[in-house]
TrEMBL record, chain A:
SUPFAM superfamilies, per database record: TPR-like
Ranges: TPR repeats: 497-530, 596-629, 630-663, 664-697
Disordered as annotated region, ranges: 1-20, 44-72
Biological process, per Gene Ontology: protein import into peroxisome matrix, docking
Protein name, UniProt field: Peroxisome biogenesis protein 5 isoform X1
Subcellular location: Cytoplasm; Peroxisome
TrEMBL record, chain B:
Classification via Gene3D superfamilies: SCP2 sterol-binding domain (3.30.1050.10)
Name of the protein in its database record: SCP2 domain-containing protein
GO cellular component, one term: cytosol
Species of the source: Dichanthelium oligosanthes
All residue ranges annotated as the SCP2 domain in the record: 20-112
Cited InterPro entries: SCP2_sterol-bd_dom, SCP2_sterol-bd_dom_sf
Coiled coil: none
Length: 734, 122
């Protein structure tokens, strides 16, 4: 069915009361059904306090339940209005709805249609606007051209409009309706385009508020369904409604692929999960508002019961009649009326579930990826029950589902799940977090493969001498700036080993070992025998607890050393044995006890073998030879910290910081030492200092979050998650 | 922990030392549960090494627990490290299928990043 037919109601759209099978009409009915129902559109579906008044807003608000018989009758009334739709289509009706009562229609019905038709066929060409005349006409013109540009897929040209003197409520109506309308008409367009269109429109009408973002229109489909079911959910229309619903679903989603795609774009694959949950709870709530509330409540109850029952693994039980009865109840196939069991008329939620399942199965692949090896083929109910059954092996108390449904939990995990109330917001942050995790996995796996990740928007690109600039910044201790300058250098000269090396050193001091390793590996490619690079790689891999790698690089350090290379047996090995390497280095230390570097490597090697006392002794020896080496003080401190001598460690870190005040790694290590001693409040201040100096120090952010939790400062966790440095620094000054 | 090439072994060694400190003793008082960790180098369930973090006695030992631990976790080396350092959210790791849990879930829920000491960096 062409868009045009959808709107004008021609073709298969019967021009009588059955016009509700036209999805756009039904939609418009819901949106425009009563001019005073604007509020209900604005509110999220599911709110019970929908004000419902008569058509022209003259009667006092009725206290009817939405979807009740009364409201259904009200909807029957504007049959004449149904004809209106056929004439002008909802788009015109939408515009028309801004006409205040009492003001004559903009032209006759016929001209209305003609105008619409003309706009449609002229789509893309400039529409001449009647910019003079009464405000309503101007407004009408603007809205028409907005629609036209939307259909043609061209950006809406902002038009200078004389002051219309719109009241606040008018503005709100325009805003709300144009948002919804645009989303519907331009459903095949990207979200940004829709937003841009509407924002331009609102701007030219001098309506300040921007188009509501995700908070409002997060579930546009859902809003539509809600509105549709609102307008026609009377008891008499139960069957009809279900049919209609399915038809509409089919119409609107006859391209499930694109629906799925756009959804995935918006929410990622796991958006499904949250949408489903959202839908489910909203549906449940919406149905509660209906006249057959009792039935639906019973359905809800039995659904939960069915879930619990489904978690029982006994096949005998699974096949029992009682179980089947309950699951039928839960799907609304059976309803109980006057204590009699009856076959339910094709219930909405049943059809709905089926639809979802179809969609769901079509999308099974991506789910399968997400939940690798989990057998998920049925939908969230099944999913939830799998959760339950998986833990049925334990005692009953161990059932997660139980835990969550009790909601009087004290455990942090469960609290995070239930935080912010059920349904409304719990699904979303959860999904967000999931996505964040996924992306961080991707990122970290990329970095661990040694791929250097360059900063976006580097102001030093194009700098005449970024190397010199980088060295200067590094000396001044402006590490994050130095990173940018050095990145510009290695982008310019990818074979500059010294550039890569200094970049690696900077990242290490900035407490980012992944990037340090990636940079050092490039340095090593350019110059495979540079001793500093080999040592730095050994240290960074040690920090990442990668013993084998660390050992290999430190062994290579010895192999390539002009003085000690001869100590290494000629048959080279790729996986040296730790104690052998230690022995060789000890020989080297005997050869030249004045070489601080040998002692440093020995200290690192003893860290690898967790012989911390020996490591501390080696670093102390090295410090006697090189007392101004701040990184050496930090190495001593870190070793002491890891061998649980946190008090000594703090003294060593302090030395390092005296020598290099912007040494992010030492600040972060300070925090770790305080945290490991249980002094969480103190640790927070040091972590905050570290992340303030390098907001990319992910480790420090993670530790900060943990310390906030331990210090009972959950109030600041949101600031931490949002990486709000201002708030954190204000709250935790050092 | 000796002889293990797992990264987790390094952290567990630190945990062992940590449990002897005041902060560590505080932890055993607070949690008082026994966890068994089955850690696989690469693929879940393959070539697992078994460790026991006994927060009743304040010990970390290698080998299966003699008796019934409050909860048993199975994960890979990297996933365990991610959880212990706060990089990975345990719930999400569970939902991803990256953790398998046996035993009491309320005990499992107390297995959070904050019970582990953090490694300092050289």
């Amino acid at each position: 069915m062409a868009m045009r037919h959808l709107i004008t109601g021609q073709n298969s759209c019967a021009p009588d009361g059955a016009s509700s099978s036209n999805p756009l009409n039904a939609f418009a009915n819901a949106v425009l059904g009563q001019s005073s129902k604007t509020q209900s559109i604005k509110e999220l579906p599911g709110s019970v306090s929908v004000p419902s008044t008569s058509d022209f807003g003259t009667a006092p608000p009725l206290s009817t339940i939405p979807g009740s018989e009364d409201e259904f009758k009200q909807d029957q009334r504007p049959l004449a209005r149904g004809a209106d739709f056929i004439r002008g289509g909802p788009a015109n009706d939408w515009i028309e709805s801004f006409r205040p009562p009492g003001v004559p229609e903009f032209g006759g019905a016929e001209s209305q249609f003609a105008e619409f038709d003309q706009i449609y066929s002229n789509a893309g060409t400039t529409i001449r606007l009647p910019l003079d005349g009464p405000p309503q006409r101007v407004l009408s013109g603007v809205l028409h051209s907005f629609l036209a540009s939307g259909r043609a897929g061209v950006p809406f040209q902002p038009v200078p409009v004389p002051a219309l003197g719109l009241s606040e409520s008018d503005k709100q109506r325009i805003r709300d309706r144009s948002c919804i309308m645009a989303r519907h008409i331009l459903a095949d367009q990207p979200e940004e385009y829709i937003q841009a269109q509407v924002n331009t429109l609102l701007h030219s009408l001098d309506i300040d508020n921007r188009m509501r973002g995700p908070m409002h229109g997060q579930y546009p489909e859902l809003e539509q369904y809600w509105n549709q079911s609102q307008s026609s959910m009377g008891p008499a229309s139960m069957h009809n409604a279900a049919d209609k619903w399915i038809t509409e679903f089919g119409n609107q989603n006859n391209n499930p692929e694109s629906w799925e795609n756009s959804f995935e774009q918006q929410y990622g694959p796991n958006g499904w999960a949250s949408e489903f949950e959202q839908h489910q709870s909203q549906m449940a709530m919406g149905q509660m508002g209906g006249a057959n509330m009792a039935n639906l409540a019973a359905m809800e109850q039995s659904r939960m019961l069915a879930q619990t029952l489904a978690s029982n693994n006994d096949p005998k039980f699974q096949n029992s009649k009682f179980f089947q009865f309950v699951s039928k109840m839960s799907r609304g196939e059976l309803i109980i009326e006057d204590n009699q069991v009856k076959q339910g008329s094709a219930s909405q939620s049943n059809g709905w579930a089926d639809e979802f399942q179809t969609q769901y199965n079509a999308n099974a692949n991506s789910w399968a990826d997400q939940f690798a090896h989990e057998e998920l083929s049925q939908g969230a109910d099944k999913w939830a029950s799998e959760f339950a059954s998986e833990h049925n092996q334990g005692t009953l108390n161990d059932n997660w589902v139980d835990e969550f449904s009790k909601l009087n939990v004290t455990d942090e995990w469960a609290e995070e799940f239930s935080g912010g109330g059920f349904g409304e917001s719990s699904a979303d942050p959860w999904a967000d977090e999931f996505q964040e995790q996924l992306s961080s996995f991707k990122q970290s796996s990329g970095a661990s493969r040694g791929v250097y990740v360059f900063s976006e928007m580097n102001p030093y690109v194009g700098h005449p001498n970024p190397m010199q600039e980088g060295q200067e910044l590094f000396r001044k201790g402006l590490l994050s700036e130095a990173v940018l300058a050095l990145e510009a250098e290695v982008l310019k000269n990818p074979d500059n080993a010294e550039g890569w090396r200094l970049l690696g050193v900077t990242h290490a001091e900035n407490d980012d070992d992944q990037q340090a390793i990636a940079a050092m590996m490039r340095a090593q490619e350019a110059n495979p025998t540079n001793l500093e690079v080999l040592l730095a790689l050994g240290v960074s891999h040690t920090n990442e607890l990668e013993q084998g790698e660390a050992l290999r690089y430190l062994y290579r350090w010895l192999q390539n050393h002009p003085k000690y290379g001869g100590l290494v047996p000629p048959q080279s090995t790729d996986s040296p044995y730790g104690p052998d390497v230690v022995r060789l280095f000890n020989e080297a230390a005997q050869m030249s006890p004045e070489d601080a570097d040998v002692h440093i490597v020995l200290g690192v090697l003893y860290n690898l073998s967790r012989e911390y006392d020996k490591a501390i002794a080696s670093f102390k020896t090295a410090l006697q030879l090189k007392p101004q080496d701040y990184s050496l003080w930090n190495k001593l401190g870190a070793t002491q910290a890891n061998s649980i001598q946190s008090a000594d460690a703090i003294l060593a870190y302090q030395k390092a910081l005296d020598l290099k005040p912007n040494y992010v790694r030492a600040w972060a290590n300070m925090g770790i030492s305080y945290a490991n001693q249980g002094l969480y409040e103190d640790s927070i201040r040091y972590y905050v200092r570290a992340v303030a100096m390098n907001p990319k120090a992910d480790n420090a952010w993670q530790y900060l979050r943990i310390s906030l939790g331990n210090a009972s400062r959950a109030d600041m966790i949101a600031a931490c998650d949002a990486r709000n440095l201002d708030a954190l620094q204000k709250e935790f000054p050092l | 922990m000796d002889g293990s090439s797992l990264k987790s072994a390094q952290l567990l060694e630190q945990m062992r030392l940590h449990l002897a400190t005041d902060a560590g003793k505080e932890l055993t008082k607070k949690v008082g549960l026994v966890y068994q960790l089955n850690i696989a180098p690469k693929k879940l369930g393959v070539d697992e090494e078994i460790f026991v973090v006994d927060l009743k006695k304040g010990e970390v030992t290698k080998g299966p627990y003699q008796g019934k631990p409050d909860a048993t976790f199975s994960f890979t080396d990297n996933d365990f490290l991610g959880i212990a350092t706060g990089k990975t959210n345990p719930q999400i790791a569970f939902i991803r299928g990256a953790i398998k849990i046996k035993g009491s879930i309320s005990a499992a829920q107390k297995f959070t990043p904050d019970i582990f000491p953090k490694p300092a960096k050289l």
